[in-house]
Amino acid sequence: MDEKKELFQNLKGKGLIIHHWDTDGICSAHILLHHLSDKKIVNKTPIIGNYFLTEQELKSYAKYDFIIILDMSLPESNIKILAQKAQVFIFDHHLGSVIPYVFHHNPVINGEKPEKYPSTSWIINTFFGKAVNIHAILGVVGDHENNIQKNKVFSSVISEFCKTSNLNFADLVQMTYLLDSCYKVGDKTMVEKLPKLLLKETDGHSIVQNDILKNNLMLLEQEITKHIIHHGEEINGVLVKKIDTKYNIISTVTRKIAWDSKKNTLVINTGFFADRNQIYVRSNKNMEPLIARGKTLGYNCGGKKEVLGAIVPKEETDSFVQEILRFLQ
Prior knowledge:
This protein has 329 residues and is of the alpha/beta class. The chain contains 14 helices and eleven strands. The strands form two sheets. A six-stranded mixed beta sheet has the order 6-7-8-9-11-10, with helices on both faces. The longest helix has 18 residues, at 211-228. The chain is globular and about 55 Å long.
């Protein structure tokens, strides 16, 4: 029997998928739900904004026999607790450390070039030997938007997919905006419904026609526009922008400012959590050492080579921001 098929062939009991709340996480969960359609399995996302599981979540997840984590680099302390009572599988493309006592499939932390594995949706779709499809593609586009067109391999893959599916690149970007709108407005319930709604989806039509998603997007576009009109203050070549919003738009605001200005960009959102601030960085510098530093300081911190995301206590935000600015100089 093929080793990859055998991996999930003998799973018994109740299963849980824990996935990131963005397009890549949603599409990755969809691909796996479709692949494991014969299993008893539900999907959940962490509390939006938390890159960790709370004690209450960990307690409620103890009833599952197997748990599959998609597109999230959860703290190893969380993984250890989950693995006490369940088989744990991880598919991811973020930076981190290999966790040897669970099944951990992440080519990037095993030394592969990140540009070859631009999304978890692509990794899991390839892992199971599935043909290129809209869900694998949307995860890639969702994580990189227009920048993926600079990737010679994937720009070609996406271009060929568009030709055969009668879509253009702008259509794909719009679909990712619609899917991402749920987490950005804080609608966790809808985020968790989307992977199963997509089981009926082959061409993206129901995404662009969904009234809930369209209304979300109108609201968000107004809020995002408000925060990107001014790029913020430039400090030693780094754009620093402070925002105060209840919406989870910090990654989008950072991306738009960074891509428009072509400069290292640091955004702080003081309005999402009552006791903590969101920090997001996009840089042309390798962020791995700073991500490791954030974790050493006890912050919930993660990202990719060019991206850092952190949740930091309000009273420690200024100190960590100064470390980031020194690192980026």
